[in-house]
Amino acid sequence: MYKPKFTISLHMSKLIDEIASLRERIINAPIQIAWKPALQKEMTIRNAMGSSAIEGYVLSISEVKALASKERIEKQLNLTERAVFNYLSALRYINKNADKKNVTDTDICKLHGIIGEGAVEHGSAGVYRNIQNYVVNGLGDKIYTPPSPNVVPDLMKEFTKWINEESSLYLPVISSGIIHYHFVEIHPFVDGNGRVARALGTWELLRRKFDTLHIFAIDDIIYEHKKNYYFALNLVQKEKGDLTRWLEFYLEIVAESLDLAWKRIVSLPKTDKLERLTLTPKQEKLLTILRDSGSLSAKEIAFILKVTVQGVHFLIKPLIEAKIVKRQGGRKTGKFNLEK
Predict the structure, then answer these.
(1) pTM of the model
(2) Every domain of the chain and the residues it spans
(3) Which of 2, 63, 100, 176 could form a disulfide with 59 if both were Cys (CB 3.0 to 4.6 A apart)?
(4) What is the DSSP letter of 147?
């Protein structure tokens, strides 16, 4: 049986306490029913954006939102669009299976099949590799050689056995990080391993009832710290399989994700107009400053957000249409505040 090696450092202990506190606040927040679909949709969009962008498949939030609006796409998608669309489908899959008690290697192949259909450049989607693969850096240099393809099926059976029998001995945020790393270590597919690893990490948090509201995203935060992400993964090999530094990084990501989720919750006004609105980071910040400062002019908002006045009007228009923000006065001299 696989035995992860790590120690609970002082930094990890502090992060675990911080995560527990943030999670408690989120769970006990008086979130209106109308908020949940908007927050859940936003989580899905941000996870798909982040995990795909890590692999170089970068789309804007509006482009991902358009792909997320349909479960089937009839037009021909390019590789980047297909990768993001597939990841959206994978997130729907794990959400539907959030209560699944045991995970099998068939489930993992299914997940890779969803993620990889038309979006892996090497190998077949949903099939374990039968060739030796390598992990390379940005210069094309080999930095890690995964196990031989001959042992992959047995390693994956051991991997799923650990998930089903041993993961519950650890806190969900710890087991999620272990699963994420160990899957990358096995690298069972020719291509698409990173996306599957991140999806499995999220699935573990859902299965273990950690993210009961499904309203926070990890992958977009990992993308923001992409360089440190790869550094932390590679550090495990240098430290002879010790996961401590990797888990510290992973817990930092979870804590940052929860903190952002909490800030979104407290910044959103009590309204029933959010079901179809996905907020950009600047719109989130705009709502926060209006909540904290009261009425502000377009010039004042532009100065705080570091955008043009025209940019402010662009950001604020959908918020006015959704009756979240209102304007008092004319277009040039008026001020904006939150709807009561």
Answers:
(1) 0.79
(2) 10-267, 281-338
(3) 63
(4) P
